[in-house]
Amino acid sequence: MKLYSRRQLTGAIVTVSLLAAAAAFGFGYIAFRPQASQDSASAWLGDQGSVQSAVTAESMPAPVDGAVAGTINDGTSATQSLQLGLPAASGQNYSLDERESISVYERYNESVVNITTEVVNINWFLEPVPESGGSGSGSIIDARGYVLTNYHVIEGAYKLFVNLADGSQYEATVVGTDPQNDLAVIKFEPKKGLELKPITLGSSKGLKVGQKVLAIGNPFGLERTLTQGIISGLGRPIQKDSRTVLQNMIQTDASINPGNSGGPLFNAIGQMIGINTMIYSTSGGSVGIGFAIPVDTAVRIVPELIKEGRVRRGWIDMEAIQLFPALVTYLSQSGQASPIDKGLLISVLSEDSNAAKAGLQGGSQAVRYGQSTFRVGGDIIISVDGQAVGSIADLYTALEDNKPGEKVEVEFYRGSKKMKALIGLSEQSQER
Predict the structure, then answer these.
(1) Among residues 103, 111, 255, 261, which one is catalytic?
(2) Is the domain of 155 the same as that of 236?
């Protein structure tokens, strides 16, 4: 057995005590450090939480017409702010302009439908084959399933399908069309218990250039897309085809792309003021000018479309030729010089036509121009119902809101003499 001196024993005790103290300190530090770190993280999140809880109803922007201001959930700017270490409240302070846009979208995006079509083509074996057609947008205007859209969206369609916000699809039928205003009403049968949300119709009277507008549609098939802009022009006449001029179009810089046609144009308070129809663009994209049909036009004709399936309009029974430079020159050289160079030369009138009964006269001498043959020597109409008429499209436009049986005043030249007549209108043919 080995004996230790008192000095060695004391040194061993001191050494063991120091080691024990160091171990205790180490274990305490290790235990304390994670807790401190955790407390620090909790304190940061707690600060963030206090920021959130401090945003009371008094400090939050007031919701506008159903818009939930400052809602925090996954994917919102508030949640993203937490992930980025930014104050959570920064995602809740919506500006008035933002709140207006959010409110309009949340109230009416489900009222905008996506319209797809099927058309019939002929294959190599001369067999009819159904194919996917175009697509566009439409506005639910009645809880029974009536939808307002552009005529060109459904033109030539074999089948129509309406796609709702919940992903459901319904086959639709055409109720009525008005090619002259490029408008149509279609209808689908919603399933039992489905409550549709019709769009609120406003008015296109009193609109101002610079006024904020919003468009909801399905550009390029991307459903319920919102774009925003201003009214950049009013009262624009747009030539749709050789016989149709769309009058009083609303011009806007809000993006309107293929697929937006037929969708609603809203004002800032959520009233539909127009039907998005076309875009003028050199590139074919939204870098251009958009045009919308005034909602007042739709309000005027939609009841008739639903009731009659078409719009009944008045007409002047005649065959007329639009004056053109070569014709004006010919008339001058043949001793029938016209005092004007814009107007409609009456070529043929039947004896029982409304124009003949009012005293107008048709041409007497047949001439040929290119592939066309017509008569000269008749009266030249320069205005109808107070509107200047220089083309066939102008004539359709002048009679656009006149009904069969109404009488309109017509101004015309017979030779160099200016005359007037009152003509009772017949019914315009639907095939133009």
Answers:
(1) 261
(2) no
